[in-house]
Amino acid sequence: MNEPRLPEKTAPADSAVPWLHPRPIAPDRNQAYLSLRHARKVYQTRSGDVEAVGLADFDIEAGEFVSILGPSGCGKSTLLSMVGGLEPVTEGEIFLEGTRVNAPRRDFGYIFQDPTLLPWKTVLDNVLFPIHTQKRQVADYEAEAHRLLEMVGLADFKAKRPRELSGGMRQRVALCRGLINDPKLLLMDEPFSALDAISRDDMNLALVRLWDKYHKTALFVTHSIREAVFLADRVLVMTARPSRIVADLKLPFARPRDVTVQETPEFNRICAWLREQIQAGYGRPAGPG
Amino acid sequence: MEVAANPALSNAALARRREMLLTLRRIGLPVAAAALFLLVWEAGTRWANIPEVLLPPPSAVLDRLVRNFPLLMTHAWPTIWQSLAGFAIATVLGIVLASLLSASTLIRETLYPNVVFFQLIPKIALAPLFVVWFGLGPEARLSFSVFVSFFPVVIATLAGLDNVERDLLRLCRALTASSWQTFVSVRLPHAVPYIFSGMKIASTFAIIGVIVGEFITSRVGLGYLILFASAQAETALILAAICVLCVFGLAFYGVVAVAEKWTIRIFGDAPR
Q: In what order do the strands lie in the sheet with A48-60?
């Protein structure tokens, strides 16, 4: 693999459809809130280099909720880890508000596929766990913890331990824990993919409701097209082999968002278009270009 | 059948009754088997006229137990306190060593293979060495008891410290937690159930260590009493001493097991 080039983003096949227009990258990228500049991740293995993330080159505005959509193995989780500072980039740079991200930061929030709650701590203490580890004043955040838990419908479960909760409820706790330090960037790595379909719908709704109130900048990795579209302001489509971002589209749905948006023709048209992009990614020949 | 025939009983009452019968069965069957064993033993020794030196009947052992109770207690006390102290020291040492092994790759690479090696040698064979090093007093028995019982604690604790889910460690890293914080707030609490399963083994090993030590050197303790009684061909006294030992061992193990149950309720179960 030589000289990786940037792929062309979103060929506007039908310019009559407004959401199909590719998003231009602002000329002054230092103004961007979160900026990934030619970020690339290569793992060295015995059988040669493996490209986990091809080229990621995009900016995200403050307050934007961005879904990264792609099939498993396309490197979307690795991309998220790089943004979170958990994985070093092989090439390129990542900036948040002009400062380079190369290690985990106190002002990030992280939500994983598993709730990763501490079984010996109560729900409330789990939510406050980041505050404890980051040596912040717990008293300053207790009210916020109660508020978050009430917002996701866990007001009566604050003193319970994780084992007494269902999978969906545990992930709600993780959601509150991710938000407790008022993060500048919330990184979500397929947070609902281990849940059953009904709990997942529930969680999507809970998250959308939370977003109507919070407007945090968020990166949400998923392999569910409908979830990506329902939650986000913008969707990036990633393909595997080569790992590339092949589409970048701004969604036309307003907030506060309602479940009924999922039944609109536009919603379904966008989902169909995204599916095509993903499927086209499978047929793409390997290598750059 | 009888139960089902009674229409006045509700389903809940039926279920409760079945549960009770099951519990009764779970406890009753082994107790009945043990009682039967003792009965056969008693009847067998009498009927076959086996000399008491060879195998006294249970009634003779009980008689000895009651008559020599003060003597047995005098000898039980040193055994008990040395076992408890050995167990306590072994637990603390084991947790500290496992923590060091888990904290530093260098220490682990240097020491862990040696720990495993020591685990493999029959430690009982080293008992006379402790007499050489620590003399004839209780120190020899105590230190040998620690030596025998701390390995299971080390191995179990280390497993608990290491088996933390990768995602939890990722979370700690994402939260910018220091490795000390990760140790105190995640690794150590996660290891608690593992530590208890190590402690259960250690509780029995600690007694074995003390008894073996008493076999070799002591002038007091149940181990000494057993050896002394065997020299005098007082088989009933041997068995009486073993009875006391059994009761102590059971109570000791029971306390640790109950404490384990209690912590599992908070810290979760260790996978077996």
A: A99-100, A91-96, A34-45, A48-60, A244-250, A234-239, A65-69, A218-222, A185-189, A108-111
